[in-house]
Amino acid sequence: MEDKRVLTGEKIIVKVGKLNIGENDSPILIAGPCAVESREQVLEIALRLKEIGVDILRGGVFKPRTSPYSFQGLGLKGLEYLREAGEKIGVPIITELMDEENLEAVAEYSDIIQIGSRNMYNYPLLKKVGQIDKPVLLKRGMSATIKEWVLAAEYIASCGNKNIILCERGIRTFQNYTRNTLDLAAVPIMQRETGLPIIVDPSHGTGIRELILPMSRAAVACGANGVMIEVHNNPKNALSDGFQSLTPDQYKEVVEALKEITN
Ligand code: PEP
Ligand code: MN
Fold this sequence. Notes:
This protein has 9 helices and 10 strands. It is an alpha/beta fold. It binds phosphoenolpyruvate (PEP) and manganese (II) ion.
């Protein structure tokens, strides 16, 4: 690959609050609903997650939905609710940024800016988040090769921001039994190629609730620095991705299983 690369493979630790992501012995747990649906919903989930174990609270407020007729997220109001919930349980928050227009607000309220799979190829947006020093979680594009993903990270890093956390979330392949094909080989490859921490999202990576525990175990076993899991207090009535969301009790089983691997 290009010899101008600024991500040389030398290990990079991303600091978020008290967390040193990439340095951790125990995997970073990112959990929360796919979307923030109301103040009560996100507070209720956050309080349950706190009891179980969570390092970073997630929740989408700008949702990149496949259909324009699906719930699009609460926008900035949702971001306030997520912030409040994060503060209440004392953990940093992460939310997705879809456009430059909301960069300032997301950078101000959120501790990590998520660039979603659909925007991995949005080079103007990558350059913009590269010009600030906020940590960025860069999801793999759903059809991205390793090289394309490395170069997307380079777009951010070459603008000055090396606070990047990668996220493997599955790619589209010919098989359609699972929502995506979780490419765990990408974990050690991306760590070696970029030096960046990488976490795995088995929720979007499989789209099947029952697969989240075994694939979380597999992710941690192959060296992932953490997992990001969708958890909902009432998955049946969730406004997005309910079918793949764990209940808090199911999430607890995952957290317990991960302790067994790392202890
Ligand atoms: C999400 O994390 O809610 C999300 C939309 O994921 P992705 O960008 O991987 O589809
Ligand atoms: Mn989702």
